[in-house]
Design brief:
136 residues, mainly alpha, 73% helix
């Protein structure tokens, strides 16, 4: 999976999702969600939205904490411009505990950084202000 991620070829995305959705063991699923985060930015935006929804739906049912954590980081990396990314990551932060909450906060930070260079954006309803209100 890491080799597929390094290539970044969108043609590899179905193999990655097959692993995410069908692999019995946690470690390959965790590697696959990390690979998805590297490959998805190279996918056509319309297809990327569908795949991000597919990933988010899978993560809602995922039982392994580490897979969910790395999956949320993948959404943060690839979700710039995807309207559902912020609510999914914010919900994960609000509902998570322990190390999973830390990963959700990290994912929110990555997503906010991708939103733009100004940490004091205007108007105040921008993504960074909403996330600051959530985190503080």
């Amino acid at each position: 999976m890491s080799a597929l991620a390094r290539i970044g070829d969108p043609a590899a995305i179905e193999a990655v999702f097959r692993t995410i959705e069908t692999e019995r063991y946690e470690w390959p699923r965790r590697a696959a969600v990390s690979a998805a985060g590297e490959i998805l930015p190279n996918v056509d935006p319309e297809e990327r939205s569908k795949l991000l929804r597919r990933l988010a739906d899978h993560l809602a049912e995922e039982t392994a904490v580490q897979v969910r954590c790395h999956g949320r980081l993948a959404i943060a990396k690839a979700g710039s411009g995807w309207v559902d990314a912020e609510p999914i990551l914010a919900k994960a932060y609000r509902e998570s505990t322990g190390p999973e909450r830390s990963f959700a906060a990290l994912a929110l930070g990555l997503f906010a950084r991708a939103a733009g260079p100004d940490p004091f954006e205007h108007p105040p309803e921008g993504v960074r202000h909403r996330l600051a209100d959530l985190l503080l």
